[in-house]
Design brief:
This protein is an alpha+beta fold. The protein has two domains: 85 residues, Arc Repressor Mutant, subunit A; 62 residues, Ferric-uptake regulator, C-terminal dimerisarion domain (Dna Ligase, domain 1, 2-Layer Sandwich). The protein contains six helices and five strands; from the N terminus they run ααααββββαβα. A hairpin with a 5-residue loop joins strand 3 and strand 4. Helix 2 crosses helix 3, helix 2 packs across helix 4 and helix 3 crosses helix 4.
Amino acid sequence: MPHCHTFIAALRQHGYRITPQREMVIEVIAHSRQHMTAEEVYAEVQKRTHAVNIATVYRTLDLLVEEGLASRADLGGGQVVYATAAHGPHIHLVCRQCGLVVDADVVPFEPLFRQIEAAHGFVCSPQHFAIYGQCAACRAAADAVPERG
């Protein structure tokens, strides 16, 4: 069964009505091989029809996140991206200077998650989140600038 049909079946099983507009949004995000903003999903849907508005896109993406079928990550600067659960757990390393986004594996962070659980009784279940800092290129460029004095 194609990915989008799995999502649609899961939503129907939970009692949600699947309108043609909602189905188009689901198809776009389910078949995407990359993270997408709501605006990017909207632009793709608009190639098919103008009968879908941006509010429908946001509501459908929020529903997918609530149902655990997709995840949302804030990359800073007002950029929020969505990905289906098929992308698997991962972390975005976001450069605050140039905006570069690098996907990283969540495995190296598992000891931290265990420490958080031991210290606070809080079980982390990260699927998709961002860590902000400075990329190697921006750090090297900053190091190369001579100090004024």
